[in-house]
Design brief:
two-stranded antiparallel ribbon, 3 helices, 44% helix
Length: 93
C-alpha cells in the first residue's frame, strides 16, 4: 500500500513541476507543491498564470526589462506606473 502512494506522489510532483516549468516557474518549487499536495498542487499549477506570455516594459531609470505587473523596480527601487500601450511589448518566443 505504501509503495503505490509514494509512486502517485512522485508522479504528481513530476507532472506539477513540468507544467510549472513550462509556464515559467521553478520546477523544484512546483515539484514540492505537487508532492506535498498531490491533486491540489496539480490543479493549482493548471490555474497558475503563464509568466512567459506576460507583457513587459522597461524601467525608465535603469533600463531593466520587467513584467507589466511589477510595481517597483527590483534593481533601482523606482516606483513604476502603468505605461502607455506603446511602451509595452510582448516577450519574444
Amino acid at each position: 500500500m505504501g509503495f503505490e502512494y509514494v509512486f502517485l506522489v512522485v508522479l504528481c510532483g513530476i507532472a506539477t513541476g513540468a507544467i510549472g516549468r513550462a509556464k515559467g516557474g521553478s520546477f523544484f518549487i512546483w515539484f514540492l507543491i505537487g508532492s506535498v499536495l498531490p491533486l491540489i498542487g496539480l490543479v493549482a499549477v493548471i490555474l497558475y498564470r503563464n509568466e512567459i506570455t506576460e507583457p513587459e516594459r522597461q524601467c525608465p531609470t535603469c533600463g531593466k526589462i520587467l513584467k507589466l505587473y511589477v510595481q517597483v523596480c527590483p534593481r533601482c527601487g523606482t516606483d513604476l506606473y502603468l505605461p502607455d500601450p506603446d511602451e509595452t511589448r510582448m516577450p519574444p518566443g
